[in-house]
Design a protein that fits this description.
This protein is mainly alpha-helical. It has one domain (2-267). The protein contains nine helices and five strands, in the order ααααααββααβββα. It has a three-stranded antiparallel sheet, with no helix packed on it. It has a two-stranded antiparallel sheet with strand order 1-2. Strand 3 and strand 4 form a beta hairpin. Helix 1 (2-22) packs antiparallel against helix 2, helix 6 runs antiparallel to helix 7 and helix 7 runs antiparallel to helix 8 (192-212). The longest helix has 23 residues, at 117-139. It binds zinc ion (ZN). Residues 219, 221-222, 231, 233, 235 line the site of zinc ion.
């Protein structure tokens, strides 16, 4: 059985990597390498973890391809979309991979119960990534400007980290629910509710961090705020707020860790 799982872990991940590369949803070699590490380790720990991760990846890529005109504006601001590089893959799959390593050390290959806390933690972190991705993808289709999550709730440009919309919250709930529903369908465990809760929590924490410590830059050439150190025009942008180390990937990873820790604390 272990051998079969090991063979499958490699065989199933290869075509996914190739398709992702062709569809330009993963960068080469960084994104593909990251996905291979995450894909193989989670599969060896338990294929259910891998399946939720794959579902996150497929659904978020699919809704990412949908672009309304409002959304195009927002995505340009956020400078998101396109190929995921190594760090983006790790920002979304890092917690699930770490939890899978813990599972492999404690239980071995494909030998863990599906309601074990580390399986729930792994899936919760994926739900948080799905919630956050869906929040951005769905939220940016709104015609209303987002409001800043902190008082006095001023309007901010679409795609701003820390900005919230009603549609965005619906996206958050949907993203977390898709992963929670899949877990429930696979396990018939009510722990799925904690996964949905953890997913929504993760997205909320992501927004709070985005509004507080995430680094924001300003491009003097284009007179635009940006989350990138180097703006897409090529100019080195000026740091205006937040902690320099807290780029979008670090914030994603951190909110996954915090949300998973809270769920660990609640269940454990
Ligand atoms: Zn610029």
């Amino acid at each position: 059985m272990e051998l079969l799982i090991m063979v499958l872990a490699f065989l199933l991940n290869i075509p996914i990597g190739l398709v992702s590369m062709r569809k330009k949803s993963l960068s080469f070699p960084g994104g593909v390498l990251g996905a291979a590490i995450v894909g193989v380790i989670t599969f060896l720990a338990h294929p259910y973890i891998w399946m939720t991760l794959l579902t996150f990846f497929i659904t978020s890529t699919a809704i990412g391809k949908y672009k309304g005109s409002e959304k195009a504006v927002a995505m340009e601001y956020a400078e998101k979309g396109g190929e995921r590089d190594f760090f983006q893959v790790m920002a979304n799959g890092g917690v699930a991979t770490a939890a899978s390593v813990i599972i492999l050390i404690n239980f071995g290959i494909y030998n863990v119960g599906v309601t074990e806390i580390w399986v729930v933690i792994a899936v919760t972190s994926i739900a948080a990534s799905a919630a956050d991705t869906w929040a951005t993808e769905v939220g940016t289709t709104t015609t209303n400007d987002p409001i800043w999550i902190f008082p006095p709730w001023n309007n901010v440009p679409k795609g701003t980290s820390g900005g919230v919309t009603f549609k965005g919250f619906m996206g958050t709930a949907m993203g977390a629910a898709v992963i929670g529903a899949l877990y429930f369908f696979l396990t018939f465990s009510t722990l799925a509710l904690y996964i949905v809760l953890g997913g929504i929590l993760g997205s909320l924490i992501d927004t709070l961090l985005g509004a507080s410590i995430q680094s924001v830059y300003y491009c003097e050439t284009c007179k635009k705020q940006t989350e990138k150190k180097y703006h897409k025009c090529g100019t080195e942008s000026k740091h205006i707020r937040g902690w320099r180390i807290m780029d979008n990937d670090v914030v994603n990873l951190l909110s996954g860790i915090i949300a998973s820790s809270i769920i660990y604390w609640i269940i454990g």
